[in-house]
């Protein structure tokens, strides 16, 4: 070899040795879990004495003296930014830049809520006695009386024009708090609300999923709340459990209806039927079950799952016990050697007329890492490896003597529901690359999981049914691959999908997918240089 010259060792592509992430899945319980550290600046170097421990089932530490309040936060050792704030506007494409959110929106990576199960549990909370309760409304807003986004002062003025309203706080103040009572604690406010038929729960924002503690306290008290609040509040609270201001175009129309409810016992009682419906209560509890855990701990849980490629239950805000790519039971048995987890592998031939034939498989060695799929006139030899949260197939040989037949690798992903079929895209629109245009790719996804398949040659990738992806390894007209031919490579990327991203992830790659696509289309070359 001449000085300063180099060669790329093709065979190294068949035996990935470079790992971008830990090769061992860390435990999700026990004493040997690596800690997650939350800090206020991405470049800040923290020592052990700079950290406070956070009570959590995941080893969780945060910068000493810091409070998980409004602002941006970072995970030590990662580039992720988490913006924390009650009503921060979420940009749905920010996941592409490793920017995530912790807000009142239930679509946030780490959602916040005013619901406190210890105070706001709605089980065994009967309605107050209509006959003994005051034929009035109560109002307990203490600041930002006008609230430009909701104009709650105008709604308040409208209601007071029709019925009597006792306002104990600063806004509209017209009565003093009775001796021995308080409006500075949830318990005190609930006790006071129990004396009234109506609670005016007028919030200062219409942000999705934002429900003030005043609304929850009104439910606990047994009164009927009149709510100014989240645009999607109908989706979050029991049907016919509150009077929604959004149902009225004019202040007077709302006031007239509230006047009717406060005087009509039968109508008032109709707003309490949900209290004895176990199905409604169970659904509400499931939605806000995560509130039992402090948001700082939930941030650590989320970061732990993301950092180590583990599954994440967004609704419950807990790490899943099964990782995205299970390391055990990768293959069924050494006898057939087919991949069975987290997808099932099938080799078939398909003729131009549509008839199919399943190829016989023969595992080489004691695992499914090497397998030969054989037929009368076709043959395919592949290797498979898992690394860095992805699965790679390396096709080292394929022969097809039938000009009207395709050799197909069919992968089935149980549980994935993609009724709209697959999304096809050019990999080069997702990541910069030095390779030519002959890269094939497609993805399927539902609201939980996304599967992306990439091949490093020009071929057909398609979805023939829900949870099914097919890739044409060789057409009959293609030249056969011999053992000494350059291998064909396939990469399968499986990701959890956050509800906030909706269908955007169908067209836009996450930072993890970009990294693994970049690694695939521009793999690390190993050079030997004679200087």
TrEMBL record:
It is found in: Golgi apparatus, Golgi stack membrane. Keywords: Glycosyltransferase, Golgi apparatus, Membrane, Transferase, Transmembrane. GO terms for molecular function: alpha-(1->3)-fucosyltransferase activity. Its EC number is 2.4.1.-. GO terms for cellular component: Golgi cisterna membrane. InterPro entries: Glyco_tran_10_C, Glyco_trans_10, GT10-like_C_sf. Its main location: Golgi. It is a single-pass type II membrane protein. It is an enzyme of class 2 (transferase). Residues 133-303 form the Fucosyltransferase C-terminal domain. It comes from the Eukaryota. Pathway: Protein modification; protein glycosylation. PANTHER family: ALPHA- 1,3 -FUCOSYLTRANSFERASE, ALPHA-(1,3)-FUCOSYLTRANSFERASE 10. Belongs to the glycosyltransferase 10 family. This is Fucosyltransferase. It comes from Fragilariopsis cylindrus CCMP1102.
